[in-house]
Amino acid sequence: MTDQLEPMPEDWQRALAIVAHPDDLEYGCASAVAVWTDAGREVVYVMVTRGEAGIDTLEPVKAAAVREQEERASAAVVGVGRVEFLGHADGVVEYGTALRRDLAAAIRRHRPELVITLNPADTWQDTYWNTPDHRAVGRAVLDAAGDAGNRWIFPDAGGEPWDGVRWVAVAGSDSPTHAVDVTDGLERGVRSLLEHRAYIEALTDEDPEAYARGLIEGFARQEAERFGGRPAVTFRLFPR
């Protein structure tokens, strides 16, 4: 695909990134977050689960503590000081009103202009099957961005209605429309993923730094052809 990508909007101050697991944002998106926080923008992370089912060699209670600590450290690398965990069960997140309610409440709490989530499609690159958690959370985020602004939907969720979400940006989409030049955020994107060392070491026998650098730099440079030759993180942008 050679369609050129548009730059992401820059006329915003607050963003809320909502994903299923610790590490979801670090597989590329964190490099863009580093660029945004450098520019003085506020980004908050919300994890729907604590990632407790993600490490085969650690029982869930222990894995949850490790993965939460790794995510907080990872977020700090790219200038994010606030990370929330909603506590849904890892691996069995269900799309539905309970999830939409929790996400609408988070949006009302943080009042973002930009909401970021991960690919809710069935597949990655029309080849690899996406996980149920990613699909459920991505779809629920798209719905909750509207729910948050309607005072008659989830009135017991707390907070005043927030109808100020201007865009939802989906990372990891097979059909992106926009991109961020991550030249100045790429190294921190690599270091952010490296903070998930326990997860990476359980996932692969490859050297963690080689693994992280190969993925993050590879993804960013793969998109450069569609973005003026600049390393990029891509999004499918849905205006609201």
Helix and strand sequence:
EEHEHEHEEEHEEHHHE
Overall structural domain count: 1
Helicity, as a percent range: 25-40%
User: Numbering strands along the chain, what is their spatial order in the largest sheet?
Assistant: 1-9-10-8-5-2-3-4
From the 3D coordinates, which CATH architecture would you assign?
A: 3-Layer(aba) Sandwich
Number of contiguous helices:
7
Shape: globular
Structural class: alpha/beta
Largest sheet: 8 strands, mixed
Overall pLDDT metric: 96
The fraction of residues in strands falls at 15-25%
Protein name: PIG-L domain-containing protein
GO molecular function: hydrolase activity, acting on carbon-nitrogen (but not peptide) bonds, in linear amides
Keywords: Zinc
Pfam families: PIG-L (PF02585)
What does the model show?
- The chain has 240 residues and is of the alpha/beta class.
- The protein has a single domain (6-239), classed as 3-Layer(aba) Sandwich (Rossmann fold).
- The protein has helices spanning 29-38, 60-77, 97-110, 132-147, 186-194, 197-203, 208-222, and strands at residues 6-7, 14-19, 42-49, 83-88, 114-118, 123-124, 128-129, 167-171, 178-181, 232-239.
- It has an eight-stranded mixed sheet with strand order 1-9-10-8-5-2-3-4, sandwiched between helices.
- Strand 3 (42-49), helix 2 and strand 4 (83-88) form a beta-alpha-beta unit.
- The radius of gyration is 17 Å and the shape is globular.
- The mean pLDDT is 96.
- Keywords: Zinc.
- It holds the Pfam family PIG-L.
- It comes from Nonomuraea aridisoli.
- This is PIG-L domain-containing protein.
- GO terms for molecular function: hydrolase activity, acting on carbon-nitrogen (but not peptide) bonds, in linear amides.
